[in-house]
From TrEMBL:
EC number(s) recorded for this UniProt protein: 6.3.5.3
Keyword rRNA processing appears in the UniProt entry: no
Species for this entry: Streptomyces sodiiphilus
Coiled-coil parts of chain: none
Membrane-spanning residues: none
Protein name: Phosphoribosylformylglycinamidine synthase subunit PurS
Pathway note: Purine metabolism; IMP biosynthesis via de novo pathway; 5-amino-1-(5-phospho-D-ribosyl)imidazole from N(2)-formyl-N(1)-(5-phospho-D-ribosyl)glycinamide: step 1/2
Catalytic activity from the UniProt record: N(2)-formyl-N(1)-(5-phospho-beta-D-ribosyl)glycinamide + L-glutamine + ATP + H2O = 2-formamido-N(1)-(5-O-phospho-beta-D-ribosyl)acetamidine + L-glutamate + ADP + phosphate + H(+)
């Protein structure tokens, strides 16, 4: 993954595309060898279902790739 202070144009492009595809509530996307998504609100089952749908339809090429969804809680609060 890129260091946090390094701009991530691929992640920004994905972040801008998600709402156009009907996926709301993603605050930030970082892309490297994996995608990291910060969600608005709790990572409840409904939110995780949406993330899985994003992965299945947009983020992963399921013909040649597999994906996993992992939740990592942080104490970090952004304004």
């Amino acid at each position: 993954m890129l260091k946090p202070e390094i701009l991530d144009p691929q992640g920004q492009a994905v972040q801008r595309a998600l709402p156009r595809l009907g996926f709301e509530g993603v605050r930030e996307v970082r892309q490297g060898k994996r995608f990291e998504l910060e969600l608005d609100g709790p990572a409840d089952e409904a939110a995780l279902d949406k993330v899985r749908e994003m992965a299945e339809t947009f983020l992963a090429n399921t013909v040649i790739e597999y994906y996993t969804v992992r939740v990592e809680e942080t104490d970090e609060v952004t304004a």
